[in-house]
Amino acid sequence: MKMELLSLLNELKQMKWIDLSHEFGENTPRWPGFESLRKEIKLEFGEYPVRAYQYSFPGQYGTHVDVPGHADVNGRTLEKIDIKECVLPLCVINCSDKVKMNSDYALSLDDIHDYEKIYGKIPKGAFVAMRSDWGKRWPSQEKFQNMDEYGEQHYPGWSLEAVKYLIEKRDVTAIGHETFDTDPPFCKEQRYFQAECYVLKQDRYQIEMLTNLDKIPERGAIIFCIFVKQTNGTGFPVRCFAICPNK
User: How many domains does the chain have?
Assistant: First the structure.
């Protein structure tokens, strides 16, 4: 059995590994209601043989996970997410061309149906990601928010109808996107955070501010979502990556 696992690992390492997380630091784009990361040196070379920082930042910072407890007082928190939920088949729905035409675009039920006509039915327990190429605006806070002259933000997201379908009809485990929020902020019908709260209240999780989805095949990859096991945590920065077939 040990040799079988080693052989499997060696086989996986011959495939494409794509990092889906942005770096995060003091200048990371963030939801405008949050402050930027602050760090303070606690131990420094010269006085000590090591260097260490103390960090202060919101849990929902940079590429991060939102777990059910973020929207549901009785929802599961970070330490209660089973590790098997962190490794999932990845389906990527490409809306990037539509987003180029409309920054407020919401992934629709038609987009899901069109995807399944080409790539087959989304499997139970999948992670479904919306590709918008919004992550290419990194690391500009201004470009991520994309505010108009009236102070309204414009960036894409999911329709409430689409996320309901994915959960109720396809029983997905998680969703992900490249923007600050699940809901397009200019979509008045979904204010405030209706799609996001729906997802989390169905005991699912989501990853926000993903990147490099343009490097992932629409179907056939596996996503790994690695985050800390914080007691009563509602969200935290993550290191997400995908393993993809070479062809």
Answer: 1
